[in-house]
Predict the structure.
Amino acid sequence: MGKPKFEESWRNYFDGAESDVPDSLWSKIEVDLVRAENKGQRKSLVFYRRLAAGIALIAGALATYITYDQLNQEEATYALSEETAPRPADGRQSENGDIQEPTKGENSSNERSPLNNTLAIDNTMRQKSLLKQSITSSQKSSAASLPLFGVVESNNSSMPQEEKYRRRLGDYRPDIPESEIKIRSEEFFEPNFPRRLPAMPSYFVASNNKDDERQSENLWAALGFAGGSYSPGGGSGSYASQSAKNAVNQLSFSNATPQSEQAKLGVAYSGGVMVGKEISPKWVLQGGIGFLSQQIDYTSNYIASNTFSGAVQDNSLEALVTEYDAPLNNVYLTSPYTIRSASEYISIPVQAGYKVIDKKFGLQVNAGLASDLFLKNKLTDESGQSESFSQSAGSQSPYRSVNWTGLMGIELSHKIANHYRLAVVPGVRYSLTSIVKDDVGLAKKPLVLDLGMRVKYIFN
Amino acid sequence: MQRDEELIKGCAKGDRASQRALYDRYCRKMMAICQRYSPNSEDAEDALQEGFVKVFNNISRFRGEAALGTWITRIMINTALNKQRQKLRMLPIVEVDETQAYQEDEISLSQFHFEELLGLIQSLPDGCRIVFNLFAIEGYTHKEISELLGISVGTSKSQFNRARTLLMSRLRTLDETKASYGKAKI
């Protein structure tokens, strides 16, 4: 039997070899695991916190509107009460409808003063009023037991109130003391007790409150911006060129996939201008143009570089995403590092909006589509060790030049001036098509949840 | 004792007991591997700690194409290599004559303790130690090593030859020391 080769002897010796491990090592591993788990939970917490904030905002806006509407209904309701309906004060109705004065002694159960009788007569001469007025205790003492009717009249006339009252009485009644005339005239023209109107459906009431009128906004323009979370979709794998994948696949360590992991959530920003037109009392058509940025981090533990002269080039992120005709000749593992991928688009949204609430406070539900024109994607090594790399749209780019995105959201607005409306716009953007081309072999359909602010100028 | 499949399921769910069981099952073997690739025990412990964290964070991706021990071994080797990555960039690019014949050693390793041989490996220069481990013990070819480490095939061969020469020299020294000690005892 020949002597084993040098390599075989060492391999056989260390095959299955074991060594002691410090007891404290497991504790250190546990700490790292807990840290990693907390990091994942924090990201989920950020998402749910934002969602809760959006829901709270919507709930607050709705509660504010409901409270506002209820208050308006209480102020502007009327009621018809039989108790306050004008009735003859113990007088008999004559054939022609006039009320005759009751003769003295005929009605002893409801004996009244001549003044009260006169008031009753006067009331029957007026049209029946639908107003009921509550009488303060001081007024009750002077008004005896008669319900008091009154209509607020304009005080624009230069005629003294007392004279107006006298004329309303029809005939001059010298038996009515001056003090009573004065009191009665003041009460007649300027009731100083609060008007309390029983509840009545608001649609029976003609409101003079301009705020309750429908806000007709035929044409408007708006400036807005939004920010939110960005989920790249399509799993945790990051994009890598086929050249890089082939090179990594040849590594016997790897499980045939590049070991790079994308963060679960990124950040999205957008800003732009919009124009809207009311196409019916409840429907709005709006569109605009804006700038959209979506960025996400991912960690990688390999570097791919393409060498031509035999010397190792400086690390560049270009080799990770560029397709080469010849196989990459240098792929090696590194310690994990973070790469930031930032994509920029020009977005052209078109939406239809339905006005759920169309008053000073507004609630509108929007839905539509946007075409996102891809501008560029920039890869940046956060540690600074590798060169950044930007790629724009084109036949060589893995990114689609145009993407279609579904839009959905609500708009909570408040009219702050005649021509200005301020709105909060929580919304969702979901890519209907993958942002990378089909031949990449990786479908990415980002989902963006954002919250925006919009300032509208209303032309007419 | 739990089967590997059960441990994998438990670890994928984040069950700490399953993770501890997996760790206990493989930690000693992986420690020996990390020690071979690291210049000292501290680096080996760091590599082992980091390697197991990677194992638990990525165990849901384990597809069963290889044995679990093999998969964990590869992660440990990757982790240990990453820690030595900087040093690999400084390896000289040297072409080696492929026809050079190697002198067969006449020293049996069985007479040495594990710690002695481990110490010899750890005493090698960094590049020599890594290439030696990959070629002699893990069984990679020089081409695979060159692709893995980002060096040329010639560099891989020269590093291994140097490692081999150093080890043989130190083994002879160690062997002579043992022999003289034995003679002295007698």
